[in-house]
Automatic annotation (TrEMBL):
This is Uncharacterized conserved protein YbjT, contains NAD(P)-binding and DUF2867 domains. It holds the Pfam family Epimerase. Residues 121-320 form the NAD-dependent epimerase/dehydratase domain. SUPFAM superfamilies: NAD(P)-binding Rossmann-fold domains. Gene3D superfamilies: NAD(P)-binding Rossmann-like Domain (3.40.50.720). Transmembrane segments: none annotated. GO terms for molecular function: protein-containing complex binding. PANTHER family: NADH DEHYDROGENASE [UBIQUINONE] 1 ALPHA SUBCOMPLEX SUBUNIT 9, MITOCHONDRIAL, NADH-UBIQUINONE OXIDOREDUCTASE 39 KDA SUBUNIT-RELATED. It comes from Bradyrhizobium erythrophlei.
Length: 413
């Protein structure tokens, strides 16, 4: 009976054919002999299981060490042999080995822990909306910060190093990043002017910064992009963002791309503009049918996330999508802002074709209130992907738009 039970069990878990099961059954001893065999074997089986349980973590640890030491040992052999053949000094060989081993060990595994304390970070676009916040957070974390900008005198803080740098000039970029542990590219272009095109800024300049950062030995590069970036988009702005991400990864493998949603703060051009227009316009125009989905992120939270990516010891993910705690349709967003501010606006839907015409006219102004890329972005949903890491994995609880708006309204009273 025991024999038949064992055969049935083997059949259920193995998927063997009946013929194969019958062959196994024939090879098994009679039930009584089988029972005796199992009884005698039980202590041995239990002892083996216990040894396996005790050994399993040691085996795992040994495999991890092998992953690290294996490539390192091979590099050690190759580099020493190379330098001996060249007749180099022991000091030169030792320095070459140290450099090679550092590069090898850091790249063993995605989740390998490394000491990544940043003593000096260069921030391109450090006087902009996001960049100046990144500079402040990095400085508060104890890092020496270089603000690389065309307009360095606009940088905040007397004890922050200000460097005149042009991302279109390779020598200028190299001077700005030389000796830096980390580099942040927070440069963004909203309206094209002369030689400053979306492609020249978001792709060419971004690739240049990444390439130079890698060449001078920066440990970590953070590239600021945006949710919705797509190299296949018909929109020149959105396409340049996607192409820029690819160019940065090609120039600096392991670079970190930060994609924030549309950002808000008390000094932004998004939330404050909507609030001001809701107060003064008799009817507020809506983009299209108002169904486009947004997930606004607090600008300071984005800056804190960038700082955390640079300062953390654990190797970061290649892409983070940073968005606020709530998803709105555009119409819901407007009604939420109005309700929080105690307003009851009349909302008027306008087709995107008309918005595009208005944006084309507005872009003639020195500081346009509306741009074509804003209209293009409002035609796609800009919400964070569930498949990509965001604020939570960085230990940040994102501030809601309502919280910031209430604080703004309280401060204005």
């Amino acid at each position: 009976m025991l024999k038949h039970w064992l055969i049935d069990l083997i059949g259920h878990v193995s998927g063997l054919s009946d013929a194969q099961l019958r062959q196994i059954e024939k090879s098994l001893p009679a039930s009584k002999a089988l029972i005796d065999l199992l009884i005698r074997a039980q202590p041995i089986i239990e002892q083996a299981h216990k040894l396996y349980v005790e050994a399993e973590p040691l085996i795992d640890e040994a495999m991890k060490e092998l992953q690290t030491v294996g490539p390192a040992a091979q590099i050690l052999i190759d580099v020493i042999g190379h330098h001996v053949n060249k007749g180099s000094s022991p000091a030169e060989a030792a320095e070459a080995v140290r450099t090679a081993l550092n590069g090898s060990i850091k790249s063993v595994a995605q989740d390998h822990w490394i000491d990544q304390r940043m003593s000096c970070v260069t921030v391109f676009g450090g006087t902009g909306f996001v960049g100046r916040r990144v500079v402040r957070y990095l400085h508060e974390s104890g890092a020496t910060v270089r603000v690389a900008s065309r307009h360095p005198m606009l940088a905040e803080g007397d004890d922050i190093k200000q460097i005149a740098a042009d991302a279109h000039d390779e020598r200028s970029v190299e001077a700005a990043v030389a000796g830096a542990d980390g580099v942040v590219n927070a440069i963004s272009l909203c309206v094209e002017h002369g030689s400053d095109t979306f492609h020249s800024v978001h792709v060419e300049a971004a690739a240049r910064i990444a390439s130079v950062a890698r060449r001078v030995g920066a440990k970590r590069l953070v590239h600021l992009s945006g949710i919705g970036a797509d190299a296949a988009s018909p929109s020149p702005y959105i396409r340049s963002r996607g192409e820029g991400e690819a160019a940065v990864q090609a120039a600096f493998p392991g670079a970190v791309t930060i994609r924030p949603a549309v950002m808000f703060a008390s000094d932004d051009g998004f939330l404050t503009t909507i609030l001001r227009l809701l107060r003064v316009l008799p009817a507020y125009p809506i983009f299209g049918d108002g169904r486009t989905r947004l997930q606004p992120a607090y600008a300071d939270d984005v800056a804190a996330a960038i700082t955390q990516v640079l300062r953390q010891s654990k190797k970061p993910y290649p892409i983070y999508e940073l968005a606020g705690p709530r998803v709105y349709s555009y119409e819901e967003l407007l009604r939420t802002i109005a309700r929080t501010a105690g307003l009851r606006p009349v909302l008027m839907r306008m087709p995107f074709a008309l918005w595009d015409v208005l944006a084309g006219v507005a872009q003639i102004l020195p500081h346009p209130p509306l741009t074509r890329n804003q209209v293009e972005l409002m035609q796609i949903d800009t919400t964070a992907s569930d498949n990509l890491p965001g604020f939570r994995v960085l230990g940040i609880s994102p501030r809601s738009l309502e919280e910031e708006l209430e604080a703004m309204l309280k401060q204005s009273k």
